Amino acid sequence: MKVACVGGGPASLYLSILLKLQDPSHDITVHERDPEGSTYGWGVTYWRGLLDKLHTHDPESARAVAASSLSWTEGVARIHGRTVRHPGDQGFGIGRHRLLEILAARADSLGVRLEYGQEITADDPPGWADLVVAGDGVRSALRTRHADHFGTRASTGRNPYVWLGTTKVFDAFTFAFTETAHGWIWCYGYPYGPDRSTCVVECEPATLAGLGLDRAGEDDGLALLEGLFADVLDGHRLIARPSAHGPARQWQTFRTLTNRTWRHGNLVLVGDAAHTTHYSIGAGTTLALEDAVALAGALRRHPALPDALAHYERHRKAALLPAQSAARHSALWYESLPRYTALPPEEMFALLGQRHSPLLPHLPPRLYHRLDRAAGRLTAVRHLKRRLGPALARTLHARTLASRERSHERMAD
Asked: What are phi and psi of 174, to 5 degrees?
């Protein structure tokens, strides 16, 4: 089979690896518009479950990823001048550049052609390929050309955020919440290298404007943020993200993207081209790699391409539902932050860990906290919470979809 992967991100590279391992005779090319070695993000996160899955499918690249990652087993939150620590699941951070370097080297060793500095446009798709994989991100040109067919929808979040790096190497996944005269501003950071961490800063729109961050130049904005988070940065500096395509966009709002279908003829969507989930759950890279695993498996089990792509879409859409629900509720938690800041730090941090729950927005925070603690001790309460949470999530999701359909019908009329 001849395969063209458009976009040189984790999904495209890992898919090319898996397909070559399945059948070395596959003719696979990965097309990346940027020059080799030029990635412009910071670190990415993943969890133990993904590393185990990578070891199952390709132990060689999994070992290289693990060796280049930093890990933590605690979460740390700082608010009202107090620091709270809680044990958690094992998390990992790796530089995006290093991850792509590992996957590209592995793909190259297996005979995948890597074409850098080559942009595939919607007007010039790779017509020679039996399968075209759109792994070209949230602004995918190939998907946009057929947006009506894919049923692409994008919704924009409320809070502005900025993705930064820092020379502070955090020893855990770290949250910091700062109250200003213009409202709350917060950051979360995690290590990904021996001298770097990622640091995402978020606030409400009124806080951004009140602090002047929407008008400040890059240096002034970074200096202001360094002062606001001096207690967690320990004097270290923040670093703005460079870009290959002109000045990097700094403050932005998150776009949640969905598609009604992920396939069109021999074209299939993977990663951010198919779906996005709010950055606060740290799942983007994991979901992209899981897309690659699922697509490779479908192609192995179903010789007919239409059957394989249909199976891939059904499987991944179902598998994504928990992550998409978690992302919606995580974003809502931060958009409703003042609801929780009056709590004692221990309780606030506990509810931060519960922000994925569909029940939390509908109960007073203190009541939810008491119920959650009781659920850890009482079997009946725990079972009730498990039943009500998913049921409420399904009901709210159904209402949202129905509301959207009614809106589209009114627009059509």
From this structure: -115, 130
Q: How confident is the model at residue 407 (pLDDT cuts 50, 70, 90)?
A: low
Name the nearest CA neighbour of 43 among 217, 225, 222, 170. Answer: 170
Confidence of residue 212 (pLDDT cuts 50, 70, 90): very high
E strand spans, 123-219: 131-134, 153-166, 173-180, 183-193, 196-203
Half-sphere exposure of 226 (CA within 13 A, CB side): 17
User: How is residue 192 written in tokens?
Assistant: 């990904």
Mean pLDDT of the chain: 90
Which residues have C-beta within 8 Å of that of residue 332, sequence separation ≥ 6? 355, 361
CB 326 within 8 A of CB 49: no
Give the pLDDT confidence score for residue 88 in this predicted structure.
86
Sorting pLDDT into bands at 50, 70 and 90, what band is 383?
low
Which residue has tokens 């991944």? 316
* Confidence at residue 245, expressed as pLDDT on a 0 to 100 scale: 46
Q: What residue spans of 237-378 are helical by DSSP H?
A: 284-301, 305-335, 345-353, 365-375
| Token pair 């009056």 in the structure block, residue | 342
DSSP H helices in 140-189 = 141-145, 147-150
What distance in Å separates the CA atoms of residue 318 and residue 327, rounded to the nearest whole number? Answer: 15
**Total count of residues recorded for the chain:** 413
Q: Are 334 and 186 in contact (CB under 8 A)?
A: yes
Residue 139 in contact with residue 42, Cβ under 8 Å?
no
Integer Cα distance of 103 and 12 in angstroms:
10
**287-311: pLDDT as tens digits:** 999 999 999 999 999 999 999 999 9
* Beta-carbon count within 10 A of 389 CB: 16
- Taking CA atoms, 238 is separated from 188, 219, 224, in Å, by 13, 10, 10
CA 133/CA 5 separation, integer angstroms: 5
Q: Find tokens 């049923």 and name the residue.
A: 151
Whether 331 shows a pLDDT value over 50: the answer reads: yes
8 A C-beta contact, residue 267 and residue 142: yes
Residue 243: is its pLDDT beyond 60?
Answer: no
Query: Residue 70: beta bridge partners?
Result: 93
Q: Classify the phi-psi angles of 97: left when phi > 0, otherwise alpha if psi is within -120 to 50, otherwise beta.
A: alpha
Give yes or no for residue 397 having a pLDDT over 70.
no
372 pLDDT band, cuts 50/70/90, is confident
H helices, E strands: number in the chain: 14, 15
